[in-house]
Structures are given as C-alpha cells and as structure tokens.
Amino acid sequence: MWKLLQIELFKIFKRPRTYISFVAVAALVSIIQFGLKVDGKMYVDFMLRDLSASFNIEGNVLNGYLVCYIILQLLLVHVPLLITLIAADLISGEANMGTLRLLLTKPVSRTEVILAKFLAAAIYTFLLLIFMAILALFVSMAIFGTDDMLNLKSGYVVQLKSNDIFWRYICAFCFAALAMLTVASLGFFLSLFAENSIGPIVATMSVIVVFTILSTLDIPIFNAIKPYLFTTHMIGWKGFFDVKVNNDNEAIIGSVQNLDKVLQAAGILALHIFGLLLASVLVFRKKDILS
Amino acid sequence: MQPVIKVSNLSKHFNEIVAVNNLSFTVNQGDIYGFLGQNGAGKSTTIRMLLTLIEPSHGEIEMFGMHLSTHRKEILRQTGAVIEKPDVYKYLSAFENVQLFSKISGGPKLTRAQLLDQLAMVGLQERAFSKVKTYSQGMKQRLGIAIALVHNPQLIVLDEPTNGLDPQGIADIRNLMLHLSKERNKTILVSSHLLSEIQLIANRLLIIDKGKKMAEGDTLALFDPSQTLVELETLDNKKAFYQLQQSRWSAKLQPAREKTIVLKMDKNEIPAFHQSLAQMQIPILSLQPRNSLEDYFLQVTTGNQHVEAFTN
Prior knowledge:
Largest sheet of chain B: 6 strands, mixed
Strand content of chain B: 25-35%
Shape of chain B: elongated
Helix content of chain A: 55-70%
Oligomer: heterodimer
Order of helices and strands of chain B: EEEHEEHEHHHEHEHEEHEHEHEH
Helix content of chain B: 25-40%
Distance between the termini of chain B: 16 Å
Largest interface: A-B, 25 and 31 residues
Largest sheet of chain A: 2 strands, antiparallel
Number of strands of chain A: 2
Number of helices of chain B: 11
Number of strands of chain B: 13
Number of helices of chain A: 13
Strand order of the largest sheet of chain B: 6-7-8-3-9-10
C-alpha cells in the first residue's frame, strides 16, 4: 500500500499538468494582493462607507488577515476546478493511456490501488491548500501587516482581535480541505466510469454548478434537499469567523457562534467523502478492465 | 508434465454477447503456447480473464496449481504480461517505468544496475533515460516486455506482441521468446492472428473462433506429412466422391464439403493419388495439398468440418 502510494505521488508530481494548479493559485493570489496593495484603500473605504458615518475606524484595516479572508472568499469557489483536474484523471487517465490494465496485472489488490490513488488525490489537495494558505495568509501578513480583523456581515460587523484570528484560519483551512476532498472524491468516483478524463472533469464541475445553484436558490421546493447537498456545506469555513458576544456586545475570544452547525457541516462533508470512496472501491473491485 | 495454466469451461458474456464460450485448455510448463484466432475471436478476453482484468461469467482458472479466484496475488507474482499495445507512462523514462513496476511486481528489490540490465536485455540501454513519448512502437513493445520480465516470472503472457512492428521488430520479439523459453525455461502463452509467427515458435497451440475452441494440440502434428490435407476440385464432385468411396482411397476421405473433396494422406502418397485419379478418369480442376498452419487456421475458423483431424 505504501509502495503504491509512493508510486501514485511520483506519477502525479512527474506530470506537468499537476503544477498548473499551483501556478494558477500563485497567479491569482498575487494579482489580488497586488490590486489591494495598490488600490486597497479605496476598496476598504467603499466597504466601510456605512460604518464610517457612525464610527471612527482606526488602525490597519486592510491587514493580512482581512486580505486572506478576501482571497479565500474569491478562490475557494474556483479551487474545485483545479482539484478536479487531477482527481478526475486518476482512474480515467490511466484507462485512456492503457496503463490501468498493466497496473492491475501486478500482484496488488484493486482495493489497495483505489485507496492509494485516493490518498494521493487527498495529499495533492492538502498540498494545494497548504500552498494557498502560505501565499494567502503568511505572504499577506508579511505584505499588509497584522491587526484586528473586521468581518463585515449584512447589518453588523464582527471585530476579531488580532490574537484571536490565526487559529481560526487553521480551522478554516482544515474545513476547506474537507470541502475540497469532497470534490476530489466526486471527481475520483466519476472517473471510474470513463476512459478519458474530460468526461469526469466536466461531469464533476456540472454537478458542483447545479448543486451550488440549488444551494443558493431561495425557492421553497428546493429547501428540503439543500441540507443534503454537499455544496450547501462547502462554505462552512466562514463559520469560524463568527464569534459569540458578551453582554457588552464584545467578541468573546476563542468562541465560535454556531460551532454545532460548523461541525455538522463538516460531518456531512466527511460522510460524502466516505460514501463516495466506499462506492468507488465497490465499483472498482467488480469492474471489467476493457481499456 | 505439470500444467501451469488449466482453464476449465471458461465463459464470458457481455450482456447478450458471448465473448468466450465454454473454453478449456491446458498450458504445460516450458510450453510456448500459441493462442490463435481472428480478430474478435475472444483471445484478449480470455487473456484478460487469466490476468484478473475481467471476471469470468462461468468456469474455473487454475494457475501453478492454485485457483486464480483465491490466490490472485501469489499467481500474479509468478506472471508477467503484455496486453495488446504496450502502454506505459509516456511522460516517464524507460528506466523510471521499469523501476516503478519492479516495486509492485512481487520480485526482489532491484539495484539500478539490475534495472539497466533488464533494459539491456531488450536493447533499450542506450535510451534508458529518454522519455517514452519519444520511443517508436517497437521500442515501446520491447519496454513492455522488459516490464513484464522485471520480476523474473515463470509464466509470460503476451497478447499480440508483434502488432504494429516492422519485420525486424517481429523477428526480435520472436527471438526473445525463443531465448526465454530455451535459455530461461519460461512458459509462454502468446496470442496472435499472425499465424506465420506462431508456427515458427509455438510447440503447442489453441485455435478459437467466436469464443469457442476449434482445436488444441501439438504444432508439429499440423506439419506431419502423414496429416496432409489434399483438397480436390473436379468437374463433378458428387460423382468423383462416389468413385473415390469405391477405391482404395476411401479410408482417407474426409466428410463431404460443398465445393471440394478433402482427403487426409501422407504427402508422399500424392503422386500415386494423382495417378489413381487419372486411371479413374476423374477430370481434375485443382488439387491442392494443404499443410500449413494458415490453411488449417482458415479452415477451422471458416468451417469447422475438419477440426477432429488435428485435435489430440
């Protein structure tokens, strides 16, 4: 199993296409950071236009924490595509190349093969998110500095103390990893049914688009199914930036307003991952390799 | 002789299509076993079942005295295979491909020198570190064989190994198979529709058509002069067949066919047979001795009247 995992990782990181995702993330984060560095004041003024009328806001509002939050909001919608490029290719790409049949004539079980490939997809996903975290959080902190973070909500603003933010980002990235792994699992599962990677990539993205639309549509008939759609829970990472307040309306350090809801969302995503992986193993064990 | 492969009543259905139909055969240790059939006859499906890529609908496969369904890993550790096209990772070098598959083939860990030796055996040592995408078809085929042999298996399964190769490439593969069989005592199952290739190397063969066994036996039997089939066409076949039934050649007559009369005899008897035909005043349109594997193959795959003639 360990040998298989090493081989899968070796293959993934030997392919130039693997690095497209890292280059894309680096380019997008850099563009956002550059834009905010050059013209961030106007962006912040626009964002705080209503608050500025009532409050005197001082300090480094456009700090690294806020920049990272902005980046995550923008990027975590698009990262699934980058994850899918690799995950949906893991089985179908090998079927297309003809190497799947060679691999399966070796004395390794199909369950081992599928688990090694899934673990490799998971490691790739985590590495991409770690890379994104380094660029979005640490580089932003270096460029923009640190201070309290203002989290603007509709109708109110949450002020997070600078010493109460870092752990929230750790949790947010872990949650995002779970969400992205759900996407990877879906792409991986769909790649079992195709002999080229285009089909499962398009199918995975289509499912995400349709589910996202259903998750955001505020039509009563769709409300019943929303809790079961993984896309509904993919933005659960934002929950770590909602804090409880005390009687003086001050944020309680170390608190999360709806921790149960966040954990429930994480649980639903984990169930999706487990279900898709189990289905992948069961399908693959019985699959006739005709490619 | 100990059987390396023993297939019993093997069938595979894809919905309504019967790809392999109740197939049984045995490959013995040291055999170069030719597996013949036209395209779509069921050769690749059978080989894929032997390699656990496809699950049989019915039947049993025993290899090295073990059931394939329960001892898959043990059996595959002793088996190397190239299935149809030699597809490997094109974005890796030949060395990386061999190294990668050696790790999971069940053999001992190989040193860099041993891996290079493996590539040298198939003549790829000079291009060992070039990306496979720059290789010709013949080089890829040789690389596929190097990967199949990397763990020193007892059984080598080659599905159409000469497909897409030039004459020199075909000769190279043929010589390699003979070397592996004679010098290294490997058992080889090789499928092909290039009959001329198989007849040069296989000591035993199986012919299948539409998933069914048409014949199995020793290759030499097909070239035994006493087993020559003589195909005769006359102006009036019906009358000629009757005349031959009354003659000393009656025992050599084969079941009647539509346009020709077929007799089985020693090749040396043909001149005497020719003379007899003249004496019986049978007007001959053609008289053809047929003892090549190709004729036999065409015969059994287009009309199976004479299968028994060569079945051991």
